[in-house]
Amino acid sequence: MTAILDGPARVSAPARLRGRISLPSDKSIGHRSLIANALADGEAEVVLRHPGADLMSTVACLRRLGARIEEEVTAPGEHRFVVRGGGWTSPTEALDCGNSATTLRLLAGAIAGRGLSAVLDGDGSLRRRPMERVAAPLRAMGAAVTTRD
Description:
By secondary structure, this protein is of the alpha+beta class. The protein has helices spanning 27-39, 53-65, 101-113, 124-127, 132-140; strands at residues 43-49, 68-75, 78-84, 95-96, 120-121. Strand 4 (95-96), helix 3 and strand 5 (120-121) form a beta-alpha-beta unit.
């Protein structure tokens, strides 16, 4: 498709984006949904079925970064999170990612993209997992990232 303009074009953001999307209850989608909504201004509802320890690590880290997240159990195994994002700040203490490599890897990019500084840590198992494959691209984009081993 080719667009031909006879003069300057003006593009602006919509006043409000509103919608509803239903996806399969999946841990990977859950992490991304929580993080994306915590990055955005405004309020979003994320409903997850059986959020395990990994997703709860993401919630805890996002709260420490400044996202306001309320949680309600709405049915057996179903958790409703109201996420109010924006306003992230550099935490004063390390973010505990538990055993969730997804939490650590996704938040590393989000934190670097926000120009913040944070220490991301986890349990002994997570500390033994490779992180250079995430750190190298972030460094290539200008972020200062230090890993151990």
